[in-house]
């Protein structure tokens, strides 16, 4: 049995507000009726697409696909106009070199894809909208509503384009965790996107999989599993970029940094990441430390 499969964490999918177990079953049944199965792991040596954002989840996910499943991995990195682009890009370049050296036959250089999302024409309005609804129950789970779909549609399209090079790809991997609260990070959403892939390609053999929450594999685990795996396999996750802020080092106190630090505590692994601020006792917001961020940008310019 593969140690990454059939793992349950402390979060039950039935308790997740961004999951709809009835819809999940409905979508799964559609796939099963169309192709005889919901999803299945690609066989050793098959080629797959995987998102490489520069964050620790995507970095560890790619390492697992390479070492545990011996898959040919074609990563993609989305330049979506993010404010911390240069930091994410630095992390992506580091792990591109790392995996190319460690798995020269299986790992392939990443493809950077420019897809600006949210659109520059309404991004400021969308940010204001997020602030307006952030304290309304469940509304903060919407996040940037089109970003996740756009990112992975671009990844799927890149995978499809590789057919012109004689590379057969039918599976796209994400790295959503059981604690991810956005609706575009849920197993329900992954299934819906899988159906969309198949429908627009007119090919029901395409798959969209996020290992940590893949119910068909018995999985519903969190960051601690990936952190432990990376620690055991000497993958330097402290080089990954999780923080969404533009500080030169991880801020340590935005929601993504907070979850990163929580993951290390739950994994019982020493966190070598350098942080700018201490970890708040309660869950932070994306709007904390805005004054410090603006000051640093001003001083930099």
Task: Write a structural description.
This protein has 2 domains: 13-241, Rossmann fold (3-Layer(aba) Sandwich); 242-301, no CATH class. It contains 9 helices and 5 strands; from the N terminus they run αβαβαβααβαβααα. It has a 5-stranded parallel beta sheet, sandwiched between helices. With 301 residues, the chain is of the alpha/beta class.
Strand content: 5-15%
Which runs of at least 5 residues are low in confidence (pLDDT < 50)? none
- Name the structural class: alpha/beta
What about the largest sheet? 5 strands, parallel
Helix content: 25-40%
| Assembly form of the protein | single chain
Count of all domains: 2
Overall pLDDT metric: 94
Topology (elements, then pairings):
Elements: H1 21-35, E1 47-51, H2 56-67, E2 72-79, H3 85-102, E3 111-114, H4 123-133, H5 147-161, E4 169-174, H6 187-201, E5 207-210, H7 223-232, H8 255-267, H9 290-300
Parallel strand pairs: 1-2, 1-4, 2-3, 4-5
Helix pairs in contact: 1-6, 2-7, 7-8
Question: What structural keywords apply?
Answer:
single chain; about 300 residues; alpha/beta; Rossmann fold; 2 domains; 5-stranded parallel β-sheet; 9 helices; 5 strands
Summary, kept brief:
The chain is of the alpha/beta class and 301 residues long. It has helices at residues 21-35, 56-67, 85-102, 123-133, 147-161, 187-201, 223-232, 255-267, 290-300; strands at residues 47-51, 72-79, 111-114, 169-174, 207-210. The protein is built from nine helices and five strands.
């Amino acid at each position: 049995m593969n140690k990454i499969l059939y793992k349950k964490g402390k979060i039950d999918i039935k308790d997740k507000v961004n999951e709809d177990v009835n819809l999940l079953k409905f979508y799964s049944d559609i796939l099963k009726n169309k192709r005889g199965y919901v999803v299945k792991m690609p066989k050793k040596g098959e080629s797959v697409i995987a998102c490489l954002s520069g964050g620790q989840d995507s970095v560890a996910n790619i390492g697992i696909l390479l070492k545990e499943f011996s898959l040919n991995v074609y990563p993609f990195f989305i330049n979506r106009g993010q404010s911390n682009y240069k930091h994410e890009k630095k992390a992506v370049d580091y792990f591109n070199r790392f995996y190319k050296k460690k798995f020269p036959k299986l790992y392939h250089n990443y493809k950077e894809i420019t897809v600006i999302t949210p659109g520059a024409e309404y991004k400021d309005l969308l940010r204001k909208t997020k602030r307006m609804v952030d304290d309304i129950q469940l509304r903060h789970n919407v996040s940037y509503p089109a970003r996740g779909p756009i990112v992975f549609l671009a990844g799927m399209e890149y995978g499809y384009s590789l057919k012109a090079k004689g590379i057969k790809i039918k599976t796209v991997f994400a790295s959503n965790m059981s604690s991810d609260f956005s609706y575009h990070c849920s197993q329900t959403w992954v299934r819906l996107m899988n159906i969309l892939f198949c429908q627009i390609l007119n090919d029901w053999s395409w798959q969209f999989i996020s290992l940590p929450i893949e119910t068909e594999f018995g999985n519903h685990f969190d960051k601690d599993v990936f952190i432990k795996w990376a620690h055991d396999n000497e993958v330097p996750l402290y080089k990954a970029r999780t923080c969404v802020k533009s500080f030169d080092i991880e801020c340590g106190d935005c929601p993504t940094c907070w979850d990163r630090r929580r993951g290390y505590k739950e994994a019982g692994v020493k966190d070598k990441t350098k942080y700018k601020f201490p970890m708040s006792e309660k869950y932070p917001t994306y709007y904390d430390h805005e004054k410090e961020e603006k000051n640093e940008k001003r001083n930099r310019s």
